[in-house]
Design the sequence.
């Protein structure tokens, strides 16, 4: 478990263990994938005040997975015979993408509209572990900067050749 949000009922999780797990996730450059379904993946099966729910299972992915797929999610399904429900992982791509490196041009920083774009993009909220949030903010900013560059500056290389 990563925090007290991962439990309902019973004794709160050991914060040291939660921090160690989060450190392990960050050290290995992993991200918690977003999910649908119930957030608790284990129950002790008791009733009333003695019932305990825990989020013991989650799907993690690395940067390669996040870069290769447009959508990386998982669904917690209805549990059947085990005390843990099955988890269905989904990796989806909207299209075949041509891989091209992103380049940030320092001249963009001279333009106030670029700084506003960066500020506005970075202000949008994401939910997840810190590496997941950072990855998605950078991924979104890259798309927005590419569009901004294409529509605002145009092709700088061609403009230089024409002059």
Sequence:
């Amino acid at each position: 478990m990563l925090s007290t949000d991962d439990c309902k009922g019973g004794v709160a999780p050991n914060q040291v263990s939660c921090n160690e797990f989060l450190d392990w996730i960050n050290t290995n450059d992993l991200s918690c994938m977003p999910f649908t379904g119930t957030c608790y993946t284990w129950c002790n099966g008791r009733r009333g005040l003695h019932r305990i729910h825990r989020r013991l299972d989650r799907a993690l992915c690395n940067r390669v997975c996040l870069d290769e797929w447009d959508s990386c999610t998982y669904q917690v399904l209805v549990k059947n015979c085990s005390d843990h429900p099955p988890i269905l992982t989904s990796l989806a791509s909207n299209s075949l993408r041509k891989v091209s490196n992103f380049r940030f041009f320092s001249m963009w920083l001279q333009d106030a509209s670029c700084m506003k774009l960066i500020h506005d993009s970075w202000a949008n909220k994401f939910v997840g572990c810190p590496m997941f949030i950072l990855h998605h903010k950078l991924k979104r900013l890259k798309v927005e900067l590419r569009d901004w560059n294409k529509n605002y500056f145009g092709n700088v290389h061609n403009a230089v050749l024409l002059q």
The CA atoms of residues 80 and 133 lie 33 Å apart. Strands lie at 7-8, 30-32, 35-36, 42-43, 53-54, 60-62, 71-76, 87-92. The longest strand covers residues 71-76.
